[in-house]
Amino acid sequence: MRMTEDYEDKVIYNQEHNNPLMELKEIIKQIANVSKVEIKRVAPKECEEIKGLILRSTPDDLYEKMVVGYLTSICAECMYPDTFHLQRNDLDYVGFELEKGTIETEIAGKMLGTCMKGGKIKVNKAGDETGSSMNGGEIIADEIMGIGNTLNGKIIAGKVGKISKNQGAEIIINGVKYKRSLLNRLLGK
Question: Please, which of 73, 106, 128, 181 could form a disulfide with 98 given CB 3.0 to 4.6 Å?
């Protein structure tokens, strides 16, 4: 796929199909709410176009960050069984509601793997609230700033900054299975 830019209209085109490539703002205009179903309905159907859209996007607010996060999951699921190598190190919500497939990136922002149900995410470093509300799947990281409240799934990390108190996922830190102490469980910590 070769891309060119029309300088008069500032539109990027896919020369194979001579169609303008979709941009983040266009997706946001076409969705009723931020949900995977809505975003999947309006997102490009080709994996390469979704990847390009993710790389071109500069999400500023929470709404935009969540949309791009959903796009990372949609792309990984589209590429399954191949791995989606995300070439961005600044995105929040990577793997949002991921159901299958694998995402690899060096550095993820906040909310990595939020609400994921399946699949695998591999990162060197992840931000706060990693795995929040995850109900399946696996997150593998060298370092995680903070693990959010999880329901199920598995998190394997070399180093973790903080862990929220409600954990349903199997958490392994530096080869040791995490277990809250009996005293902390009784005190609700």
Answer: 73
pLDDT of residue 8: 34
What predicted TM-score, i.e. pTM, was given to this entire model? 0.85
3-state helix, strand, coil in the chain (%, to 5): 25, 30, 45
The pair of three-digit structure tokens given for residue 25, joined into one six-digit string: 């703002």
- Spatial separation of the C-alpha atoms in residues 136 and 148, rounded to whole Å: 14
Strand, helix or coil for residue 11: strand
Q: What is the DSSP string of 151-172?
A: SEEEEEEEEEEEE-S---SEEE
- At 98-127, the pLDDT tens digits run 999 999 999 999 999 999 999 999 999 999
Q: With contact defined as beta carbons under 8 Å apart, do 175 and 157 qualify?
A: no
